[in-house]
Amino acid sequence: MDLSSINPVLLVASIMVSATPILLAAIGEMVVERAGVLNLGVEGMMITGAVVGFAVAVNTGNPALGFAVAALASAVLSLSFGVLTQLLLSNQVATGLGLTLVGLGLSSLIGKPYEGMKSPTLPKLDMGFLSDMPVVGRMLFSHDLMVYLSLALVIVVWAVLKYTRIGLILRAVGENHDAAHALGYKVVRIRMMAIFFGGACAGLGGAYLSLVRVPQWTEGMTAGAGWIALAIVVFASWRAGRVAIGAYLFGGVTVLQLNLQAAGAAVPVALLSASPYLMTILVLVFISARGAHGAPASLGRPFHASA
Amino acid sequence: MKRRTLLASAAALSLAAGSAFAQDKVKAGFIYVGPVGDGGWTYEHDQGRKAVEAELGDAVETVYQESVPEGADAERAITQMALSGADIIFTTSFGYMDPTMNVAAKFPDVKFEHATGFKRADNVSVYSARFYEGRAIQGHIAGKMTKTNKIGYIASFPIPEVIRGINSAYLHAKKVNPDVEFSIVWAYTWFDPAKEADAARALIDNGADVILQHTDSTAPQAAAQEAGNVITFGQASDMAEFGPVPRVSSIIDNWAPYYIDRVKAVMDGTWESTDTWDGISTGMVGIGEISSAVPADVKAEALALKDAIAAGDYHPFTGPINKQDGTPWLAEGETASDGDLLGMNFYIEGLTGDVPN
User: Fold this and answer.
1) Which pLDDT value is given to residue B21?
2) What number of other Cβ atoms are within 10 A of residue A143's Cβ?
3) What distance in Å separates the CA atoms of residue A129 and residue A142, rounded to the nearest whole number?
4) How far B238 CA sits from the closest chain A CA (Å)?
5) Helix axes A225-235 and A187-208, enclosed angle (nearest 10)
6) B203 touching A (Cβ < 8 Å)
7) CB within 8 Å of B71: residues ≥ 6 apart
8) What distance in Å separates residue A4's CA from the closest CA in chain B?
9) A231-278 pLDDT, tens per residue?
10) Distance from C-alpha of A191 to C-alpha of A34, rounded to nearest angstrom
11) Which domains can be identified in chain B, with CATH numbers?
């Protein structure tokens, strides 16, 4: 086998692009789940973000605006889930699945006129001497803004959850909403904000698919990415750093196995194809094996102030 | 007593009304593997469905279900369609073969048409197109146009139809360019734009400057366009919006005449279980406009090849051809039988890697 045709620089560069949409969606969902809400509508919110971002970018010629509106649109859509589950106390699992169906249908309706069109894509950042460095420059420092924003987001989420009062309140709501309520925190309002944030992140992830990773609009184009994001949150045992590891591992092994195939590696293709799932699960289970890392105690449980 | 008669006559009436309605309108159902907006495979089947409606108008009602996964869930979807009164059901992906057979056994009065499979019954026909004829032309153009001598191939599942396409393309690329090499990536999906784009990028990063695809979305075209200096071919649908580069030509599936014929046969009561495998000659396989990016002489050769195939003067699998391990498959001048082609599960000599199983 001759693997010399794999260029490690290009490989790392495409891994970063491949991991970003899942990372964005997963980090948002993690915040939602830490607040005690299980939103299974990630796929629906992602694809809504994908179509809205694409449509706005095509019509305005401004991909950055596309991302912003995609985040807003998916966040607003997620609020419908919020209203149903938090105010009207509907079942979270069923409502989340419904949100996925609504998102898929809505997106194919909105997207009809945009099939086969080309959109402006995000420019690669030029970070001066960093981008000009040999090897590392192309690998790590010449991506578009969203790649760095998604990584910054992971750090911000981690820091906020761990070190700030807001983070503590959010976790309290997710662990024991009755106690949080007794302390005077507005459980429903906090959860609505978390859902809104999760929706916005999923929207960004979707827009990244249609504006950078593919880049085009095709009906049903998320093809399960939202479900992967959901799984990664669980396997990462609700920790921001592990979510990032999981997303990069999944994106990384996906791209790596395609590259190995392209280079003609003598590994059974069936094994290579399954490897992203196997590796991600194995590694995350392994690093989560020590200590108690259960789900937030109130995850998926309905809350009403009268109870 | 009275009440019973009333009930019976009401039942008879509704039955009569039901059958009268059925006689009025033939209901044709379609099961799709991807969304109708995939821009490729499913899109073309849906164009065929629309052509049925346009041609037969009020005499027909069509229904479809898209993005039906291959496997167990397909059986539920097909059953549902049969229960909802469909008279003929087209199941348009290889993986629906066993589900179609199972449902067909339970609904002997419903006609089934399975695309690209090989199992038949009294109420199950199979139909497919000789895509490998189009692949021969793609291979020819690809072999002539590659500068790196590396051709990337995004394959879906290791089934005979896909392997046939790879072999046909390779054979004809090799014929015009002995240095050509194929890199094959198995995506294990028919439709996943992000993965298809990643696969295209992996092939391009590994030096391929021609990308052939046997997956359904236009994502590899978009990835090639972004990379520049790479040519592609539209798959299943023209994908003309990506021309003149990267998309330099295409294979277009034209199901409309077949679908119209078959639905008409149900109306006339002349439907019989058949096995249809048509190619360029009948127009079931179309070759999309060869773009201005292709040099005039290469274009002329490609068109000549197309005409020879259409006229039946040339079979894309004409010996001598050896299997990958060097054992002879076709002797000098011998052409492949349909049986061999339908069951093809091996690479021909010169291709590297193994067919996954």
Assistant:
1) 46
2) 21
3) 11
4) 11
5) 130
6) yes
7) B95, B99
8) 9
9) 999 888 899 999 999 999 999 999 999 999 988 888 888 888 889 989
10) 9
11) 24-129+255-278 (3.40.50.2300), 131-245+285-342 (3.40.50.2300)
Asked if A45 and A103 count as a contact pair (C-beta separation under 8 A), the reply is yes
Instruction: Answer whether B128's CB lies under 8 Å from B118's CB.
Output: no
Averaged pLDDT of chain A: 91
Q: Is the N-terminal amide bond of A113 cis, ω within 30° of 0?
A: no
Closest CA to A300 of A87, A28, A35, A44: A35
Amino acid in position B180: V
pLDDT over 70 (residue B4): no
What chain B residue is nearest to A270 in terms of C-alpha separation? B356
Cα B357 to Cα A270: distance, rounded to the nearest angstrom:
8
- Taking residue A278's Cβ as centre, other Cβ atoms within 10 Å add up to 11
Domain residue ranges of chain A, discontinuous segments joined by +: 8-223
Residue A141: the pLDDT is: 83
Q: Is the pLDDT at A189 greater than 90, yes or no?
A: yes
Q: What is the pLDDT of residue B228?
A: 87
Q: Which of A258, A262, A268 sits opposite B356 (nearest CB)?
A: A268
Q: Which whole number is the average pLDDT over A19-38?
A: 96
DSSP B179: T
In 3D space, the residue among B55, B11, B34, B40 whose CA is nearest the CA of residue B232 turns out to be B40
Helix (H, G, I), strand (E, B) or coil at A208: helix
DSSP state of A300: T
Q: Does A3 reach chain B within 8 Å, measured CB to CB? A: no
pLDDT at B18 over 50: no
Alpha-carbon gap, residue B91 to B113, rounded angstroms: 6
Q: Which residue has the tokens 């750090």?
A: A155
Where do we find the tokens 């039946």? B312
**Residue with the larger pLDDT of the pair A293 and B290:** B290
ipTM of this predicted structure = 0.86
The residues in B 60-89 lying below 8 A from A, measured between CB atoms, are 67
Q: Of B215, B43, B186, B283, nearest to A274 (Cα)?
A: B186
What pLDDT is recorded for position A291?
66
Q: Please judge whether B34 and A221 are an interchain contact, meaning their C-beta atoms are less than 8 angstroms apart.
A: no
For residue A120 the two structure tokens come to 């402006």
